[in-house]
Specification:
By secondary structure, the protein is mostly helical. It contains 14 helices and two strands, in the order H-H-H-H-E-E-H-H-H-H-H-H-H-H-H-H. The chain has one domain. It starts with a helix and ends in an 11-residue tail after the last helix.
Length: 315
């Protein structure tokens, strides 16, 4: 019971971190149709910006300023880059954002070095909030959960209950009609892209000191974020939220459960050995294949339901 509760809390924290990062990509990928391979780079930039600002003005100033800087960078990328290549189709956008991710990674390495930087949790939140069977749950993890929950509520209310959200949705689904009503559609696209990059930057501020702030963090988080967005379903913020929690829990529990698929089948009366078909894979312990489980689930959901868990259109 102790292991279950502790792992459950850790899985929720990691899952909500995934949501903070994936929510911005959901806005960009599902609404604009832009394959932004540089999205995880904004996550990395947010962590590095917050680290640099915290050295001078503290964590809380970095929490406010770093996402704004990422949003401004995103606005510049959309206005001076993506807008120019958009007319050439999605392949051109993909190549542009992929190259941009490489440029940002090299820029980070040239600016902050190749090694991880000592980005620390703020002292105000570096204390155990409560204990479960002797295991401490730190206040900073509760802060991460609070920020991510507030982010989910804010995005949902902004898109469904405000005039700005209605204009954004109208500009994305019926751009000609929105333009005829006097709305600046290109500016709306810039706003959406900048907001998505700012959300990724905020995730970097929150998650950079929870994990490790290094030049490899974009490469580490990028693939799993795309899995979350596609698994949850394009166009669905709720699906992104559910998929984030699911992937976070699966990866966390897979680390601590020393079982295999063969063990589960054995309880059902099916004996699996290494000599059986796919026996090597089925007898492999979950901690060794835990990182592959999200991608296996992605293949399964695309096979059974191509539009994703709660998507509104096929991927």
């Amino acid at each position: 019971m102790e292991v279950f509760l502790v792992t459950l809390l850790n899985g929720l924290v990691y899952g909500m971190l995934l949501f903070m990062l994936a929510s911005g990509l959901t806005l960009i990928f599902s609404m604009m149709g832009v394959l932004n391979f540089a999205h995880a780079s904004a996550f990395m930039l947010g962590a590095y910006f917050a680290y640099t600002i915290s050295l001078v003005a503290g964590f809380w100033v970095g929490l406010l300023v770093a996402p704004i800087l990422c949003g401004l960078i995103g606005a510049g990328i959309e206005k001076f880059g993506l807008r120019r290549v958009h007319r050439n189709g999605h392949v051109a956008e993909l190549l542009f954002t992929f190259g941009l991710a490489l440029v940002i990674e090299k820029a980070v390495q040239m600016t902050w070095g190749l090694l991880a930087v000592p980005y620390r949790i703020p002292a105000e939140l570096d204390f155990p909030l409560f204990s479960i069977y002797g295991t401490h749950f730190h206040a900073y993890r509760a802060f991460m959960l609070l920020v991510s929950a507030a982010m989910f509520g804010t995005i949902w209310l902004a898109l469904t209950r405000t005039r700005v959200g209605l204009v954004i949705q109208a500009s994305l689904t019926h751009p000609e009609m929105a333009r005829a009503l006097g709305h600046d559609v290109p500016r709306v696209f810039t706003l959406v892209f900048a907001s998505g990059m700012a959300l990724a930057g905020l995730a970097g501020v929150i998650g950079g000191n929870y994990q490790t702030t290094s030049p490899s963090m974009a490469v580490t988080m990028g693939p799993i974020v795309f899995v979350v967005v596609v698994f949850g379903g394009l166009g669905s913020l709720t699906g992104c939220f559910i998929a984030s929690l699911l992937m976070g829990l699966i990866q966390t529990f897979a680390v601590v459960l020393d079982y295999s698929v063969a063990d589960l089948l054995g309880k059902l009366g099916l004996e699996i050995t290494k000599a059986s078909p796919f026996g090597e894979l089925l007898t492999m312990p979950l901690p060794r294949i835990g990182a592959l489980l999200p991608y296996a689930l992605l293949v399964m959901i695309l096979w059974l339901r191509p539009r994703g868990l709660m998507g509104t259109r096929d991927t």
